[in-house]
């Protein structure tokens, strides 16, 4: 946990945005795997963690604006709990460390909220993403579980997003740590991958790095010879000379902060010439995007710049043609780059995605394009401000199913040379990704240095 | 997946126990970590896996006894799914491989069940342990989520338990594999642990073994210098010369079968004399319990034998006194051995615990003792039959909080020498655990050989 003043300060900043009402925070429960007492690694809800810092299951809290009080609801360990799980900090101690002096039994939350609702007070809650909390909110507010999210408080969401979007110095230290551990994971994969190994062996080795540091993964590892499959969690393939390995993985620190990095490297010691060409295009797009990062720039423009750079490179390869400005604005490049250039990062790898992309990545003037293929997967579009932490992760992906679909419909045939695309059907995919913080003067790459240029990557691979 | 005839056969055996009605199976959903699309490793529900073998989220199925049909409900991948997650076996193909020819859209389940209920047909379901499935059942049957489990079908539970309790030859091959991977995990920990290492480093290394094999852990690793804390998932301590490391960990194979092993070893190369004495007692209890394993023996007697052997050893150490038969039957030994000697194992590490211990480990004549400390944590009591797979895991644990509590109440002071116990307050805990199948002639230890005697363990530690 950070110092208690950090949490007190955060809650005060939040409280000042409300004249009245109650802000309700539901922490996470333990998630059962295959029976009640066999649970996944506990992960506290990120907003709960941000305002209260306590990593225990079964908690909830309120900030009562009118009563000017903060109450934590939860139960102390019983002697049975101590026998089975060891003596830990009491809840009262943990609350004290978060600057909360009032702790009540978990069961008292129901009465607190019922009474407030009876008094016609406004109780704000955030949209739930876990079924347990949907059920709890459904019961507290007498709403059908499926419809609970629709009653979440937009004012509460916006206030939390505004605050969590700007990282403080002590948060940046944690994120730097997360990204450096992630860089260790990346370097290890780049060092140990050999022809004949299974993807699962490399994935297991880098997972170990995250665990050894006392945290875990920020998200499931993507480590695959099929880099064109964007969210690939299959690790059953064997690495073969000539393949590329795409490794998208990141650590979560003990404090809950995420890193998110991607590197693509050859299973052999060197890239072949076609791989070099495509890699160079992706790296150009990365550099062009990174070059634009600064306060007041719209991330939408960073994305456009990345797309344009990719499109120019693809035209050089003979895969695209025609007026590229038009091609990109109409979305033709999305045959090769189906997703967004980046997203916010912090306590969540896609920071605050549970609160809604429209609030985190967009605003009332910069609305998300929810229809155009490619843009609809861009999680961040609005102006950047100092303290934002985000990823830059352009890529080129050849997805046979998508190519076939578009070619059959003759989609964008004025911009795409489908004959030439046939040569790349089995190419796979390439992505590079780093994490940045927007600063007063531009941006700063987070975490330790990690091989990214063709030469740097081949140097690591050559030393194997 | 096993061959389709395996699943067809299992469903037929189950169906024959019902004259009419519908058996409803709900598969598991993806479990969100910190937002909807960042999910924990998917784990299918074990009963769904047993009867249908398909490891995909969002499925459900019915065996309609009257209509003599089996229907799988779920949705095929969209083109967006294929772009993001890659082309996989279609649901129709997966269903075919499980011997199911009828696949309907996921949304059609609601109508199927509504129609059946309208016709006053009996729809059997198993008790849910995940909130998503509580919500689904709540909506399907119009029951408050908290009360859904009370309406689960006892006939269905008993039929599933009867079938899953007796492992087939091909299941035993998988369990053997799970236990052998678990033995690799144990041996690695025993080989690499060094003074100065963090518990998390050793835990990470053995987690890697499970992942490398294409599966994962069967349950969260317990790897701790505080072995007296029975369900300890903290890995922040540093290993010190003189400490014992208790490692309770097991792999889950790709097919979903579990292994569950425990070894306790010194951080240095050798046990000290007191550790040797306590270890010997635990090993004697293990051997005595294993010696009793055979069909028709009540596991309650295996447990009693383990407890008696522990009590005799503890008397030898001067920690217990008086008539040990009485002491054990009244539960005095539970100050040192607070839990059960073993449990069923299979697709779940505590096999079928979601279906209810009273059905899995007990029956109508051998009821669980739910009040006596110690016995109330024994998950298995009934007669063993050939094909049962179970653990044997006696231990001795010195839990300061429990010692203080009992001593203050003068509990069992006729059997416990509290003065002498003081010398052991900081001893920690020792457990050894292996997995067995009951055979026609007795029992067989599962998995590859693994150091367990004092000499064997010291030999591994000495070679470090």
TrEMBL record, chains A, B:
Protein origin, superkingdom: Bacteria
Entry's EC annotation: 3.4.11.9
InterPro entries, per database record: Aminopep_P_N, Creatin/AminoP/Spt16_N, Creatinase/aminopeptidase-like, Pept_M24, X-Pro_dipept-like
Cofactor annotation: Mn(2+)
Family, per entry: Belongs to the peptidase M24B family.
Every Aminopeptidase P N-terminal domain range: 2-134
Pfam families: AMP_N (PF05195), Peptidase_M24 (PF00557)
Name of the molecule in the record: Xaa-Pro aminopeptidase
Organism expressing this protein natively: Pedobacter ginsengisoli
């Amino acid at each position: 946990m950070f110092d208690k003043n950090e949490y007190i300060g955060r809650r005060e900043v939040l409280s000042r945005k409300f004249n009245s009402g109650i802000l309700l925070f539901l922490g996470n429960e333990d998630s059962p795997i295959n029976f009640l007492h066999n649970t996944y690694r506990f992960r506290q809800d990120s907003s709960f963690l941000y305002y209260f810092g306590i990593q225990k299951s079964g908690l909830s809290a309120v900030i009562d604006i009118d009563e000017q009080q903060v109450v934590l609801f939860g139960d102390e360990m019983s002697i049975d709990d101590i026998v089975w799980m060891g003596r830990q900090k009491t809840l009262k101690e943990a609350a004290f460390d978060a600057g909360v002096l009032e702790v009540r039994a978990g069961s008292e939350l129901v009465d607190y909220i019922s009474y407030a609702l009876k008094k016609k007070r406004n109780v704000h809650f955030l949209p739930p993403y876990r079924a347990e909390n949907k059920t709890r909110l459904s019961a507290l507010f007498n709403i059908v579980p499926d419809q609970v999210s629709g009653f979440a408080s937009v004012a509460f969401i916006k206030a939390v997003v505004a605050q969590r979007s700007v990282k403080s110095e002590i948060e940046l230290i944690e994120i730097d740590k997360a990204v450096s551990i992630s860089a260790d994971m990346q370097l290890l994969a780049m060092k140990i991958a050999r022809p004949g190994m299974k993807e699962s062996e490399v994935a297991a080795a880098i997972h170990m790095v995250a665990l050894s540091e006392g945290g875990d993964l920020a998200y499931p590892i993507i480590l695959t010879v099929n880099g064109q499959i964007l969210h690939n969690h299959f690790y059953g393939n064997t690495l073969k000379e000539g393949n590329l390995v795409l490794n998208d993985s990141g650590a979560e620190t003990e404090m809950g902060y995420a890193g998110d990095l991607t590197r693509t490297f050859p299973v052999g010691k060197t890239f072949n010439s076609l791989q070099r060409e495509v890699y160079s295009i992706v790296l150009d797009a990365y550099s062009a995007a990174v070059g634009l990062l600064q306060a007041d720039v719209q991330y939408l423009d960073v994305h456009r710049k990345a797309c344009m750079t990719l499109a120019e490179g693809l035209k050089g390869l003979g895969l695209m043609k025609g007026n590229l400005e038009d091609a990109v604005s109409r979305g033709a490049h999305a045959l090769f780059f189906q997703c967004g250039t980046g997203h916010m990062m912090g306590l969540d790898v896609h920071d605050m995605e549970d609160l809604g992309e429209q609030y985190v990545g967009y605003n009332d003037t910069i609305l998300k394009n929810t229809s155009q293929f490619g843009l609809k997967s861009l999680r961040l579009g609005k102006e950047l401000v100092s303290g934002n932490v985000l990823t830059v992760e352009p890529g080129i992906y050849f997805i046979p199913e998508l190519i076939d679909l578009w070619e059959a419909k003759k989609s964008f045939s004025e911009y795409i040379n489908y004959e030439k695309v046939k040569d790349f059907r089995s190419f796979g995919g390439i992505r590079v990704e780093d994490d940045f913080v927007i600063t007063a003067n531009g941006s700063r790459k987070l975490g330790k240095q990690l091989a990214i240029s063709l030469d740097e990557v081949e140097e690591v691979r050559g030393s194997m």
